[in-house]
Every structure is written in structure tokens, then in C-alpha cells.
């Protein structure tokens, strides 16, 4: 059994959560966030949670325990983002390419995801957290897909923080899916209202963007990749035109509040530049 | 009532003091970060000069064949420094890079392509080389010029081309959950509309921050993205270091390369 789990095998319980909100570390953290909030706070951060396996290997843990540690790190991050006032958090949990991994590892991750669904449903009641799953959910097992859809429905009216979990996702697949859905939608319109004018037959950028898996959230302000890698691995490529790309050498399970503070300070340092770029890109888009 | 009013004024005064202190602390932190970056910047410049002078052995010779396609993103605020861009391309040619894609989101480099090609002997456009089947010719460097219109706008154009085919195919009654198109079809359609191309292995960003600035999303799924700093401060040593580091990377993913010799329009 993983060292991160209690005697009944549960990943996290109220004691762990309670520890986050008490003690001098909590007070220090809240003061640090008060200072950070003097400057602009990113509205949306996205994270490629890389390094779980390297963490487990380095700590000589059982295979799969790295992913447990990664799940814990994510839960801690949600609390930090909630306290800091970040409204949207998107995480890259599982890529379509990851299905090619060892089947035992894939199953472990799917089991962990199922467990996370139950944990998030409890957290969502405490923090008014909305949970959304972005990706080709048809590739998941029926049970996991059903649990994910139920969680999305149950939390749809929450608004304090929106957590988007990219699972069975790649941006290439997202773009293709959006194009397909646009074609199907336009076909229905043409079929119902074919007046020969042809005005409904043109797919526009707004049609594609509304069918993106990530249409629920604004474009990210920061994409963080842990583990020291420099590529985006097919994550939010469409949405990251004016996004600060931050590469952190630390592996994901070791990502903590200080790393988050550092990333936000870096974002604040470059904020005026990115604000200019966003306006320029909007002008380009409007022609 | 006077007591309440005084109490409110005191609270307001304390809040103002607290805000001022927080602002001061915030500014102090950012100034400290700038001061910390200064020696790191000096160290980077020193290292790049050592590399340029050939004093660091490992950068003297390395195999660039792994870097099949390189993209350069230039921030729009610096893209008018054409002489710098030409110098950068000359350095890349000297290092042995054969295929380069230049991107700026406003398309300034596209408009200057004739001027740039004129200044670089023997350099030809990538798509001209492909049509003439000289891509594997190691004598010439090829250049491709890309802008923001080759990104989202191109996907929209490709979507409309695919939609016309979908409508004509009569397959519109199929199960709505079936996949209609493949990624390969999308890639080929992007070539048809004039915005396809190879997926770069490495993307170097010249600007104030690490951001791809709208480089066509379809082409950079697994591309290493490296920030090189402002174009005005570019130096040969940093360029060599970035390329060397790329050649040392051992990625752990199922990378799909776009074969340069198979980028043929099938329509």
C-alpha cells in the first residue's frame, strides 16, 4: 500500500485538509498571498503535471505511488489557487498518447482518476468547485465516464473555482473534434434552412472555438510544465497564443506553494508585455 | 456617534497604512528578483562568449542531423531588425541547419522574404525546394515564412474545405458519434490551403518572454520551445548552446514526425 494512503487505503481525509488550514504555515501562506495580490493575479493557470514516475523512482517507491503523490500535490494546489483568487485551473492528467504506456500503469492511473472523482465531489461541496473533464471521454471506461459526467453535472452551478481535468486529450484531437462538430452543426442548419443563399454553409472561427473541449474556460495566462521539459506535448496549443510558458525543474509531486508564488511573480513581471500581446492578437483576429 | 466615526476613520487609516506596506513589500520583492537575475544574466553572457570563442569543448562539434526542422519566432516589436534576422540565419547556416521556418504574428517577415532571400546566397523557399525535389540537397538552406494567418485562420479554411467534402460525400446520416476526419486528412487539407508544413523539432523564441505568439498550433505538438531573449541581444554562443541542448535531449514520448519527403498534397 502506498505510504500516502491511510490504513483504509484512502488517499486523503479531513485530517489532511484540516492541516492545510491551520498552523503557522497557513498564516505565512495567507500573508504571502496578500502581498502577491497587490499585483495582477492570473485568471487561469494550466499545468502539465510531469515527473510522477521520476519522483517514485528517485524515492524508491512502489510503481504507481508517484501518481498518488501527484494527486496529493494537485489537491494542495487547488487550495492554494482558491486562496490566491485564481479562478480557472486546468491540468493535463492523461494524454491520448499515454494509452500506449504499460497497461498496468494505465489501469493504475484510471483507478486513481476514479478515486479522485470521489474526492473532488467532496471538495466541491466545501469550496464551491466546478469540475469539468476535457478530452475524448469515449476512450475511457464506461464506469469512469459515467462518474465523470455525474461530477460535471453535480458541480455545474459552482463558481468559486473551475477545475478542468484534461483526460484522454490532445490538442490535435481537440481541434479535429471541433472541426467535426462544426461540420455536423452546419449540415443540420443547411438541411433545415437551405434557401440557396449559402450564408449558413461557412464555418467561422467562432464555430470551431465553441466546440473546443476547453470552451468552458478563457485562454490560460500561464502554462506550467514541471519536470524540466521544454515542450507542450500537445496541450492547449490552440489556446496558448499569448500565454506565459513556464518550465519548472521540480517534478510535479514536489511542486508546492513556493513554486506557485515564483510562477505568479514571474507572470507579474511580464504582465504588461502579455497584455499588449493579447490586444495585438485580438486586433489581428478582427482583421 | 463620534466614537463610531472615529473608529471608522481609524480603521480606514490602518487599512491605508497596511495597503501601502503591502505595496512596498511587493515592489521590494520584484526589485530583488531583478537584482538576482542580473548576475545570472552576466554569467549567461560570459558563457555565450566562451562558446563563441570555442573555449568550451563540448560545444565545438555536435551532430545537428537530429534537428531536422527549426522554427524561429520573432516578437513583433523586434521584427523590423532585418539585419539581425539575416545574421541569425547566417549563423544557423554555419552551424549546419538546413531547414528553417521564420514566424512573426503580423507577417512582416513574409513581406520581407524577397529581401531576406536576396541577402542569403543559395537559400531558397522550402516549398520551392519541395516542388523541385531538392529538399535532401545539402547545399541549400531552405526558408519558410509563416504568420498568424497560418494558424487559426488556416484551420478555419481547412474546416470549410473538409465540410464541402463531407457534405458532398453523402455520409451526413452516419452515427453522430463516428469520427469523420483523421489527423492525416487535416494535415493534408492545411497544405491544400497553403498553410501546412513540417512540424519543427525545436522552436526558438526571440522576444521578452517565452511564448509561441500564435505559431500554428497544428505544427508544434511535441516541439521543444526555448526562450532566447530579445533579438537585439542575440549572440552566437546562446544559439549554439540551445541547439546543443536539443541534440542531447532524449524525449520519452510517442513522437509523430512529419516526414519532409512525404509532405505531398494528395488532392
Automatic annotation (TrEMBL), chain A:
Keyword hit for Transferase: yes
Keywords tagged on the record: Transferase
Transmembrane segments: none
Superkingdom of the source species: Eukaryota
PROSITE patterns attached to this UniProt entry: UPP_SYNTHASE
SUPFAM superfamilies, per the entry: Undecaprenyl diphosphate synthase
Transferase is among the record's keywords: yes
Any matching Pfam family: Prenyltransf
EC number: 2.5.1.-
InterPro entries found in the cross-reference section: UPP_synth-like, UPP_synth-like_CS, UPP_synth-like_sf
CDD domains: Cis_IPPS (cd00475)
Known pathway: Protein modification; protein glycosylation
Role summary: Catalyzes cis-prenyl chain elongation to produce the polyprenyl backbone of dolichol, a glycosyl carrier-lipid required for the biosynthesis of several classes of glycoprotein.
NCBIfam families on file: uppS
HAMAP family tied to this protein: ISPT
Family: Belongs to the UPP synthase family.
Annotated protein name in UniProt: Alkyl transferase
Organism annotation: Hibiscus sabdariffa
TrEMBL record, chain B:
Superkingdom per UniProt: Eukaryota
Annotated InterPro entries: Nus1/NgBR (IPR038887), UPP_synth-like_sf (IPR036424)
Catalysed reaction, written as an equation: n isopentenyl diphosphate + (2E,6E)-farnesyl diphosphate = a di-trans,poly-cis-polyprenyl diphosphate + n diphosphate
Alphabetical keyword list: Endoplasmic reticulum, Magnesium, Membrane, Transferase, Transmembrane, Transmembrane helix
Catalytic activity, EC: 2.5.1.87
Cofactors required: Mg(2+)
Subcellular location(s) per record: Endoplasmic reticulum membrane
Presence of keyword Chloroplast: no
Pathway: Protein modification; protein glycosylation
EC class name: transferase
Family statement: Belongs to the UPP synthase family.
Protein name: ditrans,polycis-polyprenyl diphosphate synthase [(2E,6E)-farnesyldiphosphate specific]
Amino acid at each position: 500500500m502506498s505510504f500516502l494512503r491511510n490504513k483504509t487505503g484512502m488517499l486523503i481525509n479531513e485530517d489532511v485538509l484540516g492541516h492545510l488550514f491551520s498552523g503557522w504555515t497557513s498564516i505565512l501562506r495567507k500573508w504571502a498571498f496578500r502581498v502577491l495580490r497587490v499585483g495582477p493575479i492570473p485568471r487561469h493557470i494550466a499545468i502539465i503535471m510531469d515527473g510522477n514516475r521520476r519522483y517514485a523512482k528517485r524515492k524508491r517507491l512502489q510503481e504507481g505511488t508517484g501518481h498518488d503523490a501527484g494527486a496529493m500535490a494537485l489537491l494542495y494546489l487547488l487550495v492554494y489557487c482558491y486562496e490566491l483568487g485564481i479562478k480557472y485551473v486546468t491540468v493535463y492528467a492523461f494524454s491520448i498518447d499515454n494509452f500506449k504506456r504499460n497497461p498496468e500503469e494505465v489501469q493504475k492511473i484510471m483507478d486513481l482518476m476514479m478515486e479522485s472523482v470521489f474526492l473532488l465531489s467532496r471538495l466541491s461541496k466545501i469550496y464551491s468547485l466546478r469540475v469539468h473533464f476535457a478530452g475524448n471521454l469515449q476512450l475511457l471506461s464506461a464506469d469512469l465516464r459515467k462518474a465523470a459526467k455525474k461530477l460535471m453535472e453535480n458541480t455545474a452551478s459552482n463558481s468559486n473555482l473551475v477545475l478542468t481535468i484534461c483526460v484522454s486529450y490532445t490538442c490535435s484531437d481537440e481541434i479535429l473534434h471541433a472541426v467535426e462538430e462544426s461540420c455536423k452543426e452546419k449540415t443540420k442548419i443547411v438541411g433545415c434552412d437551405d434557401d440557396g443563399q449559402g450564408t449558413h454553409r461557412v464555418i467561422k472561427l467562432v464555430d470551431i472555438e465553441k466546440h473546443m473541449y476547453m470552451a468552458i474556460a478563457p485562454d490560460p495566462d500561464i502554462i506550467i510544465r514541471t519536470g524540466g521539459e521544454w515542450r507542450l506535448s500537445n496541450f492547449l496549443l490552440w489556446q496558448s497564443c499569448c500565454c506565459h510558458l513556464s518550465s519548472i525543474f521540480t517534478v510535479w509531486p514536489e511542486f508546492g506553494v513556493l513554486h506557485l508564488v515564483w510562477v505568479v511573480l514571474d507572470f507579474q513581471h511580464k504582465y504588461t508585455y502579455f497584455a499588449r500581446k493579447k490586444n495585438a492578437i485580438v486586433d489581428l483576429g478582427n482583421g | 456617534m463620534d466614537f463610531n466615526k472615529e473608529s471608522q476613520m481609524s480603521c480606514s487609516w490602518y487599512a491605508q497604512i497596511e495597503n501601502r506596506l503591502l505595496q512596498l513589500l511587493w515592489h521590494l520583492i520584484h526589485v530583488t528578483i531583478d537584482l538576482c537575475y542580473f548576475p545570472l544574466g552576466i554569467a549567461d553572457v560570459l558563457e555565450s562568449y566562451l562558446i563563441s570563442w570555442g573555449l568550451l569543448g563540448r560545444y565545438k562539434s555536435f551532430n545537428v542531423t537530429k534537428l531536422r526542422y527549426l522554427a524561429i519566432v520573432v516578437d513583433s516589436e523586434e521584427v523590423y531588425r532585418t539585419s539581425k534576422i539575416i545574421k541569425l540565419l547566417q549563423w544557423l547556416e554555419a552551424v549546419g541547419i538546413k531547414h528553417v521556418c521564420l514566424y512573426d504574428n503580423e507577417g512582416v517577415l513574409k513581406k520581407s522574404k524577397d529581401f531576406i532571400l536576396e541577402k542569403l546566397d543559395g537559400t531558397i523557399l522550402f516549398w520551392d525546394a519541395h516542388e523541385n525535389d531538392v529538399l535532401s540537397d545539402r547545399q541549400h538552406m531552405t526558408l519558410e515564412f509563416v504568420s498568424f494567418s497560418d494558424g487559426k485562420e488556416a484551420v478555419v479554411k481547412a474546416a470549410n474545405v473538409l465540410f464541402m467534402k463531407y457534405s458532398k460525400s453523402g455520409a451526413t446520416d452516419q452515427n453522430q458519434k463516428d469520427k469523420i476526419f483523421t489527423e492525416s486528412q487535416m494535415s493534408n487539407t492545411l497544405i491544400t490551403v497553403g498553410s501546412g508544413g513540417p512540424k519543427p523539432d525545436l522552436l526558438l523564441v526571440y522576444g521578452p518572454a517565452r511564448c509561441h505568439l500564435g505559431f500554428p498550433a497544428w505544427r508544434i505538438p511535441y516541439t521543444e520551445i526555448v526562450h532566447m531573449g530579445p533579438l537585439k541581444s542575440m549572440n552566437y554562443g546562446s544559439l549554439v548552446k540551445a541547439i546543443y541542448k536539443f541534440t542531447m535531449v532524449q524525449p520519452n514520448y510517442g513522437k509523430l514526425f512529419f516526414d519532409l519527403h512525404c509532405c505531398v498534397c494528395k488532392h
